[in-house]
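Student: Hello, beginner here. Can you help me understand the protein record under this note? Any guidance would be welcome.
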Amino acid sequence: MVGRAHRLRFRRKVRMHKRQVETAGNQTDRYVFRRLERLQKVRRFVVAWIGLVVVMIGCSVIQISSLSSYYQELRPAPGGAYAEGVIGSFTNANPIYATATADRTVSKLLFSGLLKYDQNNRLVGDLAETWQTDSRGKVYTVKLRPDLRWSDGRTLTTDDIIFTYSTIQNPDAGSVLYTSWQGVKVEAKDSRTIVFTLSNPLASFPHSLTNGIIPKHILETVPMGDMRSVSFNTNHPVGTGPFQWQNLSVSGTNTTREERITLEANDNYYRGAPKLDTFIVHTFRDSSQMISAYNKHELNAMVGLESETQNMGDNSQIYNFPQTAAMMTFFKTTEGILADKTVRQALVRATDTRALRNKLFYPARPVDAPFLKNQLGYDKSLIQFGYDPIVAAKQLNDAGWVVARPGAVREKSGQKLEFTLYAEHTPETARITRELQKQWRAIGANVKIALQTDSEFQVTLSDHSYDVLLRGISIGNDPDVFVYWHSSQADVLSNNRLNFSEYKSQVVDEALESARTRTDSKLRIAKYKPFLSAWRDDAPALALYQPGVLYITRDAVYGLHEHTVVSASDRFANVDEWQVRLVKTTVD
């Protein structure tokens, strides 16, 4: 009975489930499928509502995105690596030897001087906190900043300052700064104070304190004769600059040789670690190699180009840093045709310097005197003769330099008015020399051009084996141009022999000697006037323009601004503030 009752209950449950399924199916058919047929009649309304929902969602997304960009923007941020291309080769980072572009670039990043030039090209303290001079201009007292440290963590002391300048003054060390530091006594007054005593007053002396300082604790055991070649200079130099040495890698050979000097932020820098994490100096033997690397995005910037500034990409920025220097043609006044003052004056008057500047690849400021415009001592009433080819031709005629027939070269007593113009071979000098040749030919002078390699040109400079020389000279912020125009600097026994014109004038010598020893600006200006007058009348040279340093970057470098520089490496006046990374930040 139990089994039969169990089966009956099971059957009743099965029949009940069947009825429930049938009922659900009838309801689905009634309320779903039959109503789906009605959906056809209202499809426009359904589509419209769905479209409205999609539009509202899209507008919300756009609004959120717009608000995000409104409250956020790209801003420069610390960090990242910066690679700069330089034409030349790296040989020595030691600041008492660095002269070539690559060497000075690396040295400037690694080492600090007592003083430096800021972004306004003004002399300011670097390692020095203060400096002052006595009333006679013979004693200069410099006080160091507190807590200065080398990149290896050691404390910088006055002993390092004394060691640096005693090394420079030692002839066995062979420093390029040797001549300018003779007769200067350097001693420590206390742990932070150094006193420089000069044998004679020198108004421009503070500008000599911009060279980098080297560490005594590393170099004091090196014999002076080995100082130039010690491994410190190229292997692992230690300085107090914004960056510190990481490594050097070399690739290629001879004409394809490239060097990569990798520097990293110096956490011991007195202004705090720079905002860039890494600075790479990449050297190239020629501009085509450097441009190729730039176009491959291997470089952030290039320095040293003179002409190839096109096709660098839409984002490239071109900075022009005018130098406190002058490009001039120096006439050799001691022999040949150019010993005649009248010929020199005529050549000056026959030169359209504006047309010459138009041949450059960058805007250049004119130079028309041995001083730069706005420089102490510059006098616009005592500048070189202006462009006047008619007067130039008359001067030559009156002096006996005549033209036998139209278009011929002038002659005097059977001697032709011809000479050779020498210059180092660069795109800039090639253009300038050709323009000078054309302009001087217009008044009957036959000019031959000799463009030389760097090594050839250095020999020409050393031997003074030229008629006319096209060359730039560094004048600096202070107008002490003694080394370029004083007769003692034309002597073959002179250390530098930078009086390229071999110009000799007693009036000029006395004026230069007197002016450079005066610290009173008004008195110094008055002392320079006889020099300016004699320079204009004797025409030992033709002043052309201020050369500039072209600096090309892939994108904007935040913190970098164009400014006048004493030398190309002064572009790093505030390199510790440069930034290249951009990140999104919320607007305040």
Notes: The chain has a mean pLDDT of 90. DSSP finds 14 helices and 22 strands in the chain.
